[in-house]
Backbone:
């Protein structure tokens, strides 16, 4: 049984930081692309960041320079360090795992259909940033 379990969400004031974690089980973790998506009320889901096994990463323009994605293959865990948070970062954050990306690693993250590549999803963790 595949499980992705997120943690680390919460409420923070603008300018603050949070670190999200996502622990995976039931998959050969190192074989998977890992990503973070988010969805705010009334808005479409959007890709935030993704990472291949290793150091190759991609970020949405809205979070570049503020968020950092990383993975620990020994712990089957992916992280999202979020700094300088803004009210517009308020959303439910989901981690996701894909065995295959259909197209460019970065372009698919930013494509509205890119989420379709991801086979497994966590239940989400809420991030709320107040001004």
Residues:
């Amino acid at each position: 049984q595949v499980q992705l379990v997120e943690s680390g969400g919460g409420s923070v004031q603008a300018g603050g930081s949070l670190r999200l974690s996502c622990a995976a089980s039931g998959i050969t973790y190192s074989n998977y692309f890992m990503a973070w998506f988010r969805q705010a009320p009334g808005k479409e889901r959007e890709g935030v960041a993704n990472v291949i096994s290793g150091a190759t990463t991609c970020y949405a323009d809205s979070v570049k320079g503020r968020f950092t994605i990383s993975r620990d293959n020994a712990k089957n865990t992916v992280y999202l360090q979020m700094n300088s948070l803004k009210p517009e970062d308020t959303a439910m954050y989901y981690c996701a795992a894909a065995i295959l990306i259909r197209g460019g690693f970065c372009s698919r993250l930013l494509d509205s259909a890119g989420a379709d590549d991801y086979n497994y999803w966590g239940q989400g963790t809420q991030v709320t940033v107040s001004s």
Remarks:
- The chain has a mean pLDDT of 94.
- The helical segments are 105-110.
- The CA atoms of residues 78 and 92 lie 16 Å apart.
- The two ends are 40 Å apart (CA to CA).
